[in-house]
Write a structure and sequence with these properties.
By secondary structure, the chain is α/β, with parallel strands linked by helices. Helices cover 56% and strands 12% of the residues. Helix 3 links the parallel strand 3 and strand 4. Helix 2 packs parallel to helix 7, helix 9 runs parallel beside helix 10 and helix 9 runs antiparallel to helix 14. The longest helix has 19 residues.
């Protein structure tokens, strides 16, 4: 069984007694900085002086310093810049100031798992990974709740690395929901697999395939959009609240019968074989190597795919339909934007 911690298990003084630098004031960074500060932690954000993120931090009332100064100032350094940017940021701004006894933290295990960052042996290295986007980390905290979080230790120099990481997680609000103990390897590999096979890659291709099948058969694109994209949220919300059982309980018997009779025709043994191969690529570092090399080349394939996907019929139809539903607070991403 998994080990799950709550607020009662944490000693908050292990983080409130420290100076914490949040490297990157983006989606996760703004939530970490503000939640920690309101939990009594001495926090600063680290950004390039004068950039948009720097100005947002100032507007939010968060102390902000250039990255090297923040790293020198801090006892605990939380790295919240993108995975592919982190090694350069670490080498240039963090490593020179990562002195004995400090703590280096991450919200994703990618750079430690694939050794693109190798910290010195005389520091703690830990991870606190909220299982929600940054805006939800912030919203739930302000509402008196929190989102579940993962905690892991890669290197325990002080003997208190896990206890300090747990304190950090609880200062984020995660101790109100549950903090699950894991490892850097497990978090990284399961996170990448979930994104690729299910949450992003799998769902995106399933929606596209369903939409295109209906349109190619002569059905109206607008009807296809509602059936294969719009209503997906209704199903996911039911799963979110009560799992597959609650979803099946809530839909019609006809829909439930279709679930049992056709689901395995879509997700076949061949699909499962591909999933296992995706997981193997992640475990063996093949995916990480390819993604790092793509960034080093300037992302040519990635940018081409982004533009192509943003301009497909599914997105064109969806943008028009969402304009008819202002209650959704619709957002439109233009081709090439990202």
């Amino acid at each position: 069984m998994a080990t799950i911690y709550y607020d009662k298990d944490a000693d908050l003084s292990l983080i409130t007694s420290k100076k914490v630098a949040i490297i990157g004031y983006g989606s996760q960074g703004h939530a970490h900085a503000q939640n920690l500060s309101e939990s009594g932690v001495d926090v600063c954000a680290a950004e390039r002086e004068g950039c948009a993120a720097w100005n947002r931090a100032v507007a939010d009332g968060v102390k902000v310093l250039p990255t090297a100064e923040a790293a020198a100032w801090a006892d605990v350094i939380m790295v919240l810049v993108p995975d592919t940017a982190a090694p350069a940021v670490y080498e240039k701004f963090i490593e020179p100031h990562l002195t004995e006894g400090k703590t280096l933290m991450f919200a994703h295990g990618f750079n430690i798992r694939y050794q693109t960052i190798i910290p010195p042996a005389n520091v703690d290295v830990s991870m606190v990974a909220p299982k929600a986007p940054g805006h939800r980390v912030r919203e739930t905290y302000t509402e008196g709740g929190g989102v579940p979080c993962l905690v892991a230790v890669h290197q325990d120099y002080s003997g208190q690395a896990e206890a300090q990481a747990l304190a950090y997680a609880c200062a984020l609000g995660a101790g109100r929901a549950g903090v699950l103990k894991t490892t850097f390897v497990e978090e990284t590999e399961t996170d990448l697999f979930g994104e690729q096979a299910v949450l992003c890659g799998g769902v995106s291709e399933l929606v596209k395939a369903g939409f295109e099948t209906l349109v190619e058969a002569g059905y109206q694109p607008e009807i296809a959009y509602f059936e294969c994209m719009h209503e997906l949220k209704l199903i996911v919300d039911l799963m979110y609240r009560g799992g597959l059982n609650y979803m099946r309980y809530s839909v019609s018997d006809t829909a439930e019968h279709g679930d049992y009779s056709s689901g395995r025709r879509v997700i076949t043994e061949e699909t499962r074989k591909e999933m296992r191969e995706i997981l193997t690529d992640i475990q063996e570092g093949i995916y990480a190597k390819n993604w790092i090399e793509e960034n080093e080349k300037g992302r040519p394939w990635f940018n081409e795919m982004r533009t192509k996907e943003q301009d497909q019929l599914l997105e064109q139809v969806g943008a028009k339909l969402r304009e008819m539903m202002p209650f959704l607070d619709p957002v439109t991403i233009k081709p090439g934007e990202g």
